[in-house]
Amino acid sequence: MTPRVQEILSWYGSDNPGTLTNLARLLNHGRLGGTGKLVILPVDQGFEHGPARSFAPNPPAYDPRYHFQLAIEAGCNAYAAPLGFLEAGAREFAGDIPLILKTNDHDLTMNERDPKQAVTGSVEAALRLGCVGIGFTIYPGSEHRFEMYEQLRAAAEEAKRHGLVVVVWSYPRGSGLSKEGETAIDVCGYAAHIAAQLGAHLIKVKLPTAHIEQDEARKVYEARHIPVSTLAERVSHVVQCAFNGRRVVIFSGGPQESDEALLQDVQAIYVGGGFGSIIGRNSFQRPRADALRLLSQIMDIYAGHG
After folding, report:
1. What is the DSSP string of 198-210?
2. DSSP label of 34
């Protein structure tokens, strides 16, 4: 085990050997194994956005097995998906890549002002499928946020008791925020901190903009001259908000964009001290060869070769 992985494991001193072993499996798997950096393939978009919107740009992606194969061939650290997608391939690809079961989901059959997630998976199912961890989404800013926080607390407690890693998607949205505020630097930093306080081992947030949503926060950012003008500075600040970098923070890829724009974002994450990327639509919505080439370029950057 590399010194960097040992250092990261040391940040989670309250966890049992089972959880630390599964965290080590995540950190040691794939092309970036041992570096302390992560590239994870998440495919919950079919549930979250609908199958046609998610998979029609690359029809082979309708098949759940496609995503296992893509993550394995690309050398990702892990593959994360809801219950049905994992059940469709967990036996065929058993042991080939660490799996993360997404245990709650939201759909777009209604477009609520204050969204919440339905619990769609369980720790028991994660164990049955051989997963290293569970994934759970919270929406800071929604009027339902406290219910989701309580659900996460309970899920994290059970997962840790059974030796699983807890990965939290902390996505600000809801009536408490403007649309611009969902990715504001103060809100993204706050979201990362909330996830850490609720027991996350890995925290997934969106890349922040320089916008500051909360008036009281703006006073502090200006008075303390917190640097947030560049994306790398904002990444660094979000990582700082997660226990001064002692929790693993990875950043989402978002909607499909050009290779150049995505790689610029990845470079900023690397320079800012982020721990990696969780890349869904920017991977599986591209033809397989293009996705593999892009993921290889992303991993080159995180490996220090970009």
Report:
1. TT-SEEEEPPPBS
2. T
Which burial class, exposed, middle or buried, applies to 7 when counting CB atoms under 10 A from its CB (0-12, 13-18, 19+)?
exposed
Query: What three-state secondary structure class fits 195?
Result: helix
- 124 CB contacts (<8 Å, ≥6 apart)? none
Name the amino acid, one letter, at 290. D
Report the chain's terminal Cα–Cα distance, integer Å: 24
In tens, the pLDDT along 31-76 reads: 999 999 999 999 999 899 999 999 999 999 999 999 999 999 999 9
Closest by CA to 278, choosing from 290, 264, 266, 293, is 266
Q: Is 228 helix (H, G, I), strand (E, B) or coil?
A: coil
Catalytic residue set? 204
Fold of 3-41+53-273: TIM Barrel (3.20.20)
Predicted structure pTM score? 0.97
Q: Strand pairing partners for 251? A: 205, 277
Query: Residues 82-119, buried b or exposed e (16+ Cβ, 10 A)?
Result: bbebbeebbeebeeebbbbbbbbbbeeeeeeeebbbee
